Amino acid sequence: MGSELTYRRHESQPTSESYSPKPSWTAVTGVARYMLRERLVFLLVGIAIATSVFTVIPFTTTTTTGGITDAYSISEPVQLMSTRRSVYPTGFDSFNLGGKIPLGLKRKGLRIAVTGGAGFVGSHLVDRLIARGDSVIVVDNFFTGNKDNVMHHFGNPRFELIRHDVVEPLLLEVDQIYHLACPASPVHYKFNPTNVVGTLNMLGLAKRIGARFLLTSTSEVYGDPLQHPQVETYWGNVNPIGVRSCYDEGKRTAETLTMDYNRGAGVEVRIARIFNTYGPRMCIDDGRVVSNFVAQALRKEPLTVYGDGKQTRSFQYVSDLVEGLMRLMEGEHVGPFNLGNPGEFTMLELAQVVQETIDPNAKIEFKPNTEDDPHKRKPDITKAKELLGWQPKVPLRKGLPMMVSDFRQRIFGDQNTPAATTTSSSSTAMP
Question: What is the pLDDT of residues 212-245, one digit of tens each?
Fold first, then answer.
């Protein structure tokens, strides 16, 4: 047995001809001779092709955003967060949303998210964006919005509707975000006083995907102003613990967050301060003064005026506002910008215009004023005129009948009365 084990152990010893993992010089030189003899011509051809490509075509990195291609030299830093998404105009008359497109080329549409897009202002904005050729994603929880406002876009491949509350995170891939989601009337924001968390979520989304973000703020950030008319540099006079502060201070906080994301995270932002807006698709019973007066006059009810009726407001038609929002988004200025009609009316004067339009025999009823109701409200739009080339075009006496036609159809179901839409002459706030 011992001899057998000794024999097997000796038999397993490697011989000089056994495999070795170390390469031999003979194999290496053989491979080299093969490459030089068989592959040299292909190697030389490859070098020649590569040299010609890098000589003829300059080395650039291109990024396409919103249909506009920007080329960056390799020696220049590429800053994704500050990439422009369109070519911006310089004059009012030559303004062209989305940039100037060379003759014969069709503008490539953007992919845009509109939070609150089923609401009053949001739905009109969606109409304009779709008509321009963009793809639009509407995000709405239908707290104040209405699916009927965007139903005419169902079936359009460039339109999507998501039922979602922006207080919960959302993942999308878009070029621009119009953030309109927020209850804007006293009836609604006192019931559901929140808008800060939704703004924070949408800013976070804009940061992650490199989208441009537009915040629709409000003239309520000026509170009961001590300066008249109000300019963007005025800091306001707001009661931080009043019944309206959930909206007033909420929007002020939203502006703060927007600017912090711009300065700290490089997010491209725009801020619009919207003054009183009216038009078709307004909520009929939302407590705002124009919708209140119109609905009351149509129903043969007294027009309710709070206080002495001498408090003033400025009213812009919704198409003017939409035009201003789009110019702001496509422009190169952050803001904030006042977007409103500087034509100033007292509540009594507004009631009289409604009487003239609907029912000259309508009565006016006075009630005690609400808490923290601003006494004066009028925008200074000099900044918007100079930097955006924007100013409202629709006067109250022209816009109000279009709103009345829409309200009459929705209140009485009059199918013979065509629903009014935004005017082509130009293109939420509360009293």
Answer: 999 999 888 888 888 889 999 999 888 788 777 7
- Any domain includes 155: yes
Tell me the CATH number at 216.
Answer: 3.40.50.720
Average pLDDT over residues 393-400: 94
Among the listed residues 178, 189, 222, 247, the single catalytic one is 247
- Name the pTM for this structure: 0.71
Spatial distance between the Cα atoms of 303 and 426, rounded to a whole number of angstroms: 30
Angle, vertex CA 188, rays to CA 187 and CA 194, nearest 5: 135
Residue 116 belongs to some domain of the structure = yes
CA distance 15 to 9: 13
Cβ-based burial of 427 (10 A; exposed 0-12, middle 13-18, buried ≥19): buried
247 is catalytic: yes
The number of distinct structural domains making up the chain is 1
> 93 lies in a domain?
no
Question: What is the sign, positive or negative, of the torsion defined by CA atoms of 135, 141, 146, 147?
Answer: positive
